[in-house]
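Table 4 source record.
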Amino acid sequence: MPNGRKTVEVDLPEYEADQLNARAQMESLAPARYLGVHVLRSAYGPLHPEVIAYERRDDLGQVGTLSDGGDRE
């Protein structure tokens, strides 16, 4: 794999694998990348550099709340 990365196969129950694939899609990430972040967090903790970068990335969606700028009806 380029950039010193390696893909590792995991064995998951079908239902959970489908759920994780759906979550990866919602995050706009490849399933292998999404699972990789969770494996790193589980094995090395939340201070692993790649976990920190994942947590700090820009998220899609609404900024703020409906009440921060008045009524938007």
